[in-house]
Amino acid sequence: MATSIAAERQLLGNDYDLVARSHYPALSELDAEEVLALARMLREQRDKLRGMVHANRRARRGKAEPRASAGNDAALARRKQAFAAALKRVNHRLDILQGEARRAWHAAALREALARKRAAQSNRPDPGATASLGMQAKPSRKRMVRTDPREIGRVSAFVKQAQARRDK
Asked: For residues 43 and 61, is the Cβ–Cβ distance under 8 A?
């Protein structure tokens, strides 16, 4: 569940300055190194609070010595969740920044490869006729037999007359 900025400020007290930089208008102004440093600090705080919550649970079950400075378990869990949410925002921003850097690196590598390819092309002779608007039809090598249309009619009439003679 999302926590409002006012609730985070009340919950975290002095530690809110660290989380305030993870909210978006301020987060988008940070460069990659600052975002990475912020992620490290948030991760340390979250892990510290996670350890305290874990120690409290162990103490309640009787598996560890109770600490005097442990505090309220529910409040510690909410503080840990606030740091975890801030870390999630910062990690998302890091993913965006790293994606931009990765795309820029790949684009530069592709431009260099294209330049190398163009520089390495040799002068080859002209390939001759190539497809411009598409494939060209090849002439058929079959023998073309042209039959006179009068011959077709003469044979049809002959067959008709022969059939009539058989039918009589």
From this structure: no
